[in-house]
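User: Modeling request: complex.
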Amino acid sequence: MTGGPRTATLYWTAVALGLLLGGTIVATEFLGRAGPTVNLVIAAVKAALVAVVFMHLRWSSPLQRLFAGAAFFWLAILFALTFADYLTRRA
Amino acid sequence: MANIDGAPAVTDYLQTGWRARDWFLSTDHKRVAILYLLSITFFFFIGGLAATLIRVELLTPPSNLVSKDVFNRLFTMHGVIMVWFFLIPSIPTTIGNFVIPLMIGARDLAFPKLNLFSWYLFSAGGLFTLGAIILGGVDTGWTFYTPYSSFYAHSAVVLVILGIVVAGFGSILTGLNFIVTVHTMRAPGMGWFQLPLFIWSHYATSLILVLATPILAITLLLVGIERVWQYGIFEPSLGGDPLLFQHLFWFYSHPAVYIMVLPAMGVVSEIVPCFARKHIFGYHFIAFASLAIATYGFLVWGHHMFVSGQSPYASLIFSALSFLVAVPSAIKVFNWTATLHKGYIHLRTPMLYALGFIGLFVIGGLTGLFLASTALDVHVHDTYFVVSHFHYIMVGGAVMGYLGAIHFWWPKMSGRRYPEGWGIFAAILLFVGFNLTFFPQFLLGYGGMVRRIAEYAPGFQVLNVMSTAGASILGVGYVLPLAYLLWTLRRPPDAGPNPWFATGLEWQTSSPPPKHNFLAAPQVGEPYDYAEMPRDIPWS
Amino acid sequence: METPVEMQFDDPAQQREASALGMWTFLASEVLFFGGVFTGYSIYRWKYPHAFAEASHHLYEWIGAVNTAILLTSSLFIALAVQALHTERPRRAWRLIIATLICGLAFLSLKAVEYWMDYQEGLVPGVRFDASKFTDPAPATLFFTFYFSMTGLHAAHVISGLLVLTVIGITLRRATDPGKYANSLENGALFWHLVDIIWIFLFPLLYLIGGPK
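Assistant: Request completed. Predicted assembly structure:
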């Protein structure tokens, strides 16, 4: 392992995750229709924190980061082109 | 026993132990490759048996040999077995497993135990599927379209799904193994552009294995959940959309066809330079084309759904993308052809298979372009035109590539040379039989004969009889190599390390190789350096 | 203090790199695996926005929120455990692994309670489903089918993760040289973090699309 987070970083990240979780609850209660979208963005940020700090991507080789990114990129292809069908159906 | 070149006797991998546990618990990549070789050969003949029954039934217009229900089960099992239990594993797990560590100068793959585990997963999946066959098979088509497969089929769907998912997991692990191996275990001095193109092809194939197969797994699992608990995930009356199944299924199954053809292309890239005694033309183009095929192949799946109810705008996008995916394949064909040009051609068995691949792949690929055109596809979708298109690529392409690989690396794997006369005869027989079987099917399809039917209009009979006649020749052609290759094992190994005077690190060690592949560290140089090699390949 | 180098590798650095890449490749396949069912869910959510929002209201949001907090905490614990093993504090690592396991068991217990409550409410399609609760029962059934499939698959991965971490933890505890298992613990932790990430997306997608109660 080439490097890793300091203990303080781990704790602060956990705090941030907790705050974001709180943010999600707040967004659901008070943001109405924008709630789900905001929640997804928050979820993405939380996932990124877990990946970058807890899973050490910040200190990993570029190749490992590429592998991690590639998975989500490929998922995006599935989403995009499948929705391309549904969004353009006239029925 | 000493090698033919007088090197000191060393126990090769075939001789290190013959108890059951030495084979079934061996993590030696070469032994795992042989285990796979035995398994997929078994499945090839099972799938071939189904094909035989199909072709015999189709000799006459009425469904008189088997009932229509049995016919549905026959073509389903033929597809399921040939796709998942023969084609997808074939070259990667037999040749790839054997040769990849040798080609990069390694002692084994990155994860040898995982490799053996992959074979056990494959075998378990195979057992489930065989169980399903014994229970009467499945009648949904290898494509498992819902809601028929999830709600209305009265057949062992869940068992086959389990078989495919388990075997699929094994294939994901094989892809994982190859990717990590190529990244981390190349010999010192072997950069990415010193790698043989066989490795590039298998790396590209492994990308697809890892990224696409999980989608197949979840999709089939959802069908299983639907079936077991009668949930309506893809059932219209319960709010579901059958087309969603098709999107998810083809997101895997289109890239899957590149899993089936990319390894064969890698084989051709090894055979053609060797038997033309020339450096491959356009190494970088072929390498990047392999990656392009793998990645780009994920963008075209909707061309299987032009007539299913997909939006015409999405169909347009998929059609345009499908035309483009032909480009990297064409680049490879041009490069192989340029390699042959002014080469010193040796028409040995591997080369015959490679040349057969190139020609038949071109026909199959071009007919794919017809299918990519939405207007044409409306006419030929679900007809024998499609059946012929994919058999030209899968059989004319991938299977020929597989047989070429078996013959090319047989001396390395077994230490024995195969009888060249029989090899040439079988290759020619296969080429003739193949074309007689499948060319009429283009005409049948264009003329309107629908696929997956046991009973057809009498006007189609002549072409069907031709096709079955061709299939019988094909059958003989497949049995011949099985027979003469097994026959070579009666002799002691005497092929020598490099009977083809080929480049590549695998030819720098003995045939068969010792357990850890190399006694002395192999010399890494530029690939395909045939200018430094003798011009003539000796006959024996 | 290093994992012994296996035959096929030349040195510990190569082995470590291969191990990390292998684990990330496997995680990539898992992302695609769950991604498939997420895609299916998203399509139906887009198609039946009101029915899905109404159905989502019947879920126990507070259980989902507490479970999210539990998993996030467990991720912290296992990350600390990996760090502890690297800084040669195996007993601390063992305690943190136990803490992670406790969190995981708490998650599963809450999930079991929640499933039981869903059953009581008649929210389990095919088993006990009260269609009268919904203005449009067919897409509501679809919602719950996805809810149980997705959380069920996730729970199966939680169980697998717990088993893996238990085996690694016990091996560590008994070993004379626990540092040999640094690689294994890292890989186990990576799997656990992925399980956490999947839940991070599951929670808002399933529980929170209904808006305020």
